[in-house]
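User: Before I run my own analysis I want an independent prediction to cross-check against. Here's the chain; please return only the structure tokens and, at the end, one sentence I can use as a sanity check.
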Amino acid sequence: MIREVSEVANANILIVEDERITAEDIKKALNSVGFDVPAIVSSGEEAIKVCEELMPDLVLMDIKLEGKMDGIEAAEKIRSKMGIPVIYLTAYSDEKTVQRAKITEPSGFILKQPYGFLRKPFEETELNTAIEITLYRHRLEKRLRKHDQWLGAMLRSISDAVIATDPQGQVRFMNSMAEELTGWLEEDALGHDVRNIFKPMGYKFPIGEDISSKSESGFSKALLTAKDETTLTVDGSVTPINNIDGKMDGFVVIFRSIE
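Assistant: Structure tokens:
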């Protein structure tokens, strides 16, 4: 897996580090294994601006930076606006800092020694490995997003109502027929418990139970109460969906009105 990433030549990596010696040391290490460093910046504001201009493949971000914006705030803006993965460089491992950083969904952490220097020899160990894994995961995630867009377009076009949830039963997707039958708009339903959106009388969702991907359950002539308290009769099924690791990734509810 790691070699596949290394063979993708000349990935561009932005270094955001206010210790110039450390930054140059990192740049030399990255260049030695084939990565390009289009720029080194020392503040969060500069990092955002350069990312907008150059769109690097990855950002190495020091948490403590010059200026009003620290690395965590800059990383959050870079991730949300441009979708560029970020690996943090930090000498800080206190719980409060780590929890703040985790909210921004970083691709990893590289701990620095006191005075800003990375542990040596980082060229052949954690820095290079973290970058290669991050680039591989980012490419895979982009492929999966394209697949999800295609799947979503297909599900929106079918005549049956479809609701998809996460493993805890929170709504992640609804097509237009599901909106019509439940009275809920997708944008209002997202993040809500599916049991508050889709309530066929007499059916119990298997959320939290020990189930497999083959454990489809159905309902027939169930009375469904819509958001406006009107009712209709529906047939359908609820199917747990497993991810590529075999772990349960959520549920898909497919139903139709029989009135």
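Sanity check: Confidence is low (pLDDT under 50) at residues 1-8, 113-124.
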